[in-house]
Design goal:
The structure is a homodimer of 330-residue chains.
Chain A lengths: L1 E5 L8 E5 L10 E10 L2 H9 L7 E2 L3 E9 L11 E4 L2 E2 L13 E2 L11 E5 L3 E3 L6 H5 L2 H14 L7 E4 L5 H12 L3 E6 L2 H9 L4 E4 L4 H4 L5 E6 L6 H7 E9 L7 E5 H6 L3 E4 L5 H13 L6 E6 L3 H9 L6 E5 L1
Parallel strand pairs in A: 11-12, 11-14, 12-13, 14-15, 15-17, 18-19
Antiparallel strand pairs in A: 1-2, 1-4, 3-5, 3-9, 3-19, 5-6, 6-10, 7-8
Helix pairs in contact in A: 3-4, 3-9
């Protein structure tokens, strides 16, 4: 079968679409899925630097959807022919403050979704909502799960609250926007790009801030209950300054830098909450899929590529100009 | 009556024990208390720099205990002769993430407890537990309330958990130690002073770390669920490094500096919680007093002074060598 792998050479030189000789059969408790589509994530861009190219080739890709074509012994909840979406978190089924020992993400170190088939544990194959096409379902996984945990489990967003999402445009941020609007919140976003600000407003954002302006002056009349931060060093303190006293800032990324300097005294006098978040459990994944179905949420897809052109998708993702998700179809 | 006031001169020069001509009578909903004892807090040391000396004299002091000698119209829950302890938080009765508008602390800008009498709202006079002397009750207020909110409301400490309290010795820290032990937690403390480490071990601390050692190595086998931080810049990152993934750090002070630099990426991958805390509500104050009574907790009192020698108490507190609280008796 075809698969987009890393191996043989270090860095991006080791990326190649190959014809792989071996296909895996499902072991006990596993299912084999014929993939229809797979979603790209920034994580995929980092694997070439993390995977030792002298190790065996690894198929990249964390997100995907498809049809079950074989079930291993003991599989109870899934049958051949089921249309499924893959939960990319391996070994973190129950809700918990952190994942258990041994937690991994599909697509490194184990094989991923940029291939014609994949074998995953039964509990990682979740029935695809009828409201989503295979392409739409394929891009929900990692980003939707990250957004859901950050917004609801960690941020405890409630209807009527105001949430601020700096750096709108990426996959998680567009899910945050759609989820927050579906939950009845008022949503403020920011971006350096006027095009992205306009796209966010079209998707329902109530206010879109330029990264050039002093946010505090612009939103002086807003009561921001929750900030979901993934920009990091470039925006952290400005984001914190928007938050109402007693409010919560959830951080799950730091694309502009990890090192933060901030004032502890204003933080504790303001009785703020700063909460770290990453990924989510299987239970949260199922709740997220249910939420997507209940609210007829359609993921924002920027571009779709055939698997044969996946390198073009990688290049495009690396430029960070997309609004929403990129997807490949098998 | 006698009262220890600030006024007339700026800074510490304006501090004086004076014979005050006027005493206040309780208005509607207020009670007048003949003070038996009053507790000192670091806050008292800062007022001379915050009080404009051209304004009228202000009686300092946030904490106190005494006997009700007069009740104003409409007072329902308190009667003459009641022995009471004062909740120093004015205008924050119900539990909430932040105090309401108009919240103040007894002892600036309004008159405080370093005097022979004080008038406070009825809801700020709480019946003194029989288990505490007037001196003991007088030192519980501000520090006990701050400790209680940080440890239980914010930190959600549970029996069997391990809590780390850097900088043991001050009033709040000794309450944190006693409250945490009473709640069934394992308690680790730290101090630069060997004498304070030994005192903490005598009070029940399970481990006392020197501030000169690398804490991470010492507590490699401990699973620290909660850190209660008031030291600030000098210890913040070391404190955070002790915390188990998914754990909580509550900050309510920064005695060594406000400006913190920390790594956002390790913070969100570790799914940590950083929570600011300050003071507490009237409901928390009552719960704290009940907790003190239920667990027969005795505050740690370092030294007691007669009101006439309160300046000596101020000087001693300024040196930060005390272990526990300082109290003056009327």
């Amino acid at each position: 079968m075809k698969g987009f792998v890393h191996g043989g050479h270090s860095g991006n030189e080791g990326l190649a679409l190959k014809n792989l000789m071996t296909e895996h059969d499902p072991s006990s408790g596993e299912v084999k899925i014929k993939l229809k589509a797979a979603g790209l994530n920034h994580r995929d861009l980092f694997i070439p630097d993390r995977h030792d190219s002298s190790d065996p080739d690894v198929i990249l890709g964390s997100d995907g959807s498809g049809v079950v074509i074989e079930v291993g012994p003991g599989v109870k909840t899934i049958k051949e022919g089921d249309e499924v979406v893959i939960n990319p978190g391996l070994g973190w089924e129950r809700n918990a403050s952190i994942p258990p020992e041994g937690f991994q993400i599909v697509g490194f170190p184990g094989h991923g979704t940029f291939a014609e088939t994949i074998v995953v544990p039964e509990e990682n194959a979740i029935l695809k909502p009828a409201s989503l096409s295979f392409e739409e379902a394929a891009v929900v996984g990692l980003a939707g799960l990250t957004a859901y945990r950050a917004l609801f489990t960690r941020g405890q967003l409630e209807s009527g609250q105001t949430v601020f999402i700096p750096g709108i445009g990426g996959g998680v941020a567009t899910f945050l926007l759609k989820f927050a609007k579906a939950a009845g919140a008022r949503v403020i976003v920011s971006s350096r790009s006027e095009a992205k600000r306009n796209s966010a407003l079209e998707l329902g954002a109530d206010m879109a801030l330029s990264d050039e302006e002093e946010w505090g002056e612009v939103v002086a009349n807003e009561e921001v209950d929750l900030v979901i931060e993934s920009v990091g060093a470039a925006t952290f303190n400005r984001s914190l300054s928007l938050l109402k006293r007693g409010g919560t800032l959830v951080t799950f990324g730091s694309s502009t830098g990890d090192s933060i300097e901030f004032d502890l005294r204003s933080f504790f006098y303001g009785q703020y909450n700063l909460l770290g978040s990453t990924m989510g459990s299987g239970e949260e994944f199922r709740a997220m899929i249910q939420f997507v179905e209940d609210h007829s949420i359609k993921p924002v897809i920027d571009k779709s590529y055939p698997l044969d052109e996946i390198k073009k998708a990688f290049d495009y993702l690396g430029k960070a100009n997309q609004f929403g998700k990129l997807v490949v179809s098998m």
